[in-house]
Write a structure and sequence with these properties.
This is VWA3A protein. It comes from Helopsaltes ochotensis (Middendorff's grasshopper-warbler). This protein is an alpha/beta fold. It has one domain. It is about 45% helix and about 15% strand. Strands 1-2-3-4 form a four-stranded mixed β-sheet. Strand 2, helix 3 and strand 3 form a beta-alpha-beta unit. The chain is elongated, with a radius of gyration of 21 Å.
């Protein structure tokens, strides 16, 4: 319920927010079994992807902390006031940047927009499991058919 009371505000200074979350808000991180950070965003961070990836890999290393990103692509490249952000990238470049950052953090990436889901690590994983199950089922059916023909 507390999430409903939150208001959207801030900047794209990803490193500042991440440092605060990791270095201040996770004081007892060594005592925790598993923790996750969820970034809900509509655009690319102000900092370079390789810089963020290196920091994320170091920050998440040594204990079970994962960074997950939910990217919402708006139909326009501007914010609600019509101003282009300080560092602009098209939706595909933004998605690729966050995929790289998430990989460094052993997290998951989800990309969606008004038209629906463009990409999701969870959905990709589910589809992969379904394909494996289908292939296994086909092999079992073939084996049963082979045994029936021998009898």
């Amino acid at each position: 319920r507390w999430v409903l009371s939150l208001e959207c505000k801030g900047s794209r200074n990803f490193m500042s927010a991440l440092r605060r979350a990791v270095e201040v808000d996770f004081k007892d991180k060594d005592k925790q079994k598993s923790q996750g950070l969820y970034l809900l965003t509509t655009g690319i961070p102000d900092q370079e992807t390789h810089t963020i990836s290196a920091y994320v890999a170091e920050a998440c290393g040594g204990f079970d902390l994962q960074l997950h990103v939910c990217l919402f692509s708006e139909t326009k490249g501007t914010d609600s006031s019509g101003i282009i952000p300080a560092r602009y990238a098209n939706p595909r470049e933004t998605a690729n940047a966050f995929k790289e950052i998430v990989q460094a953090a052993n997290g998951r990436f989800h990309w969606f927009g008004e038209a629906g889901i463009f990409e999701s690590d969870d959905i990709t994983s589910i589809i992969s499991e379904m394909e494996k199950a289908k292939n296994y089922s086909q092999k079992c059916a073939f084996l049963v058919e082979s045994l029936k023909q021998r009898s």
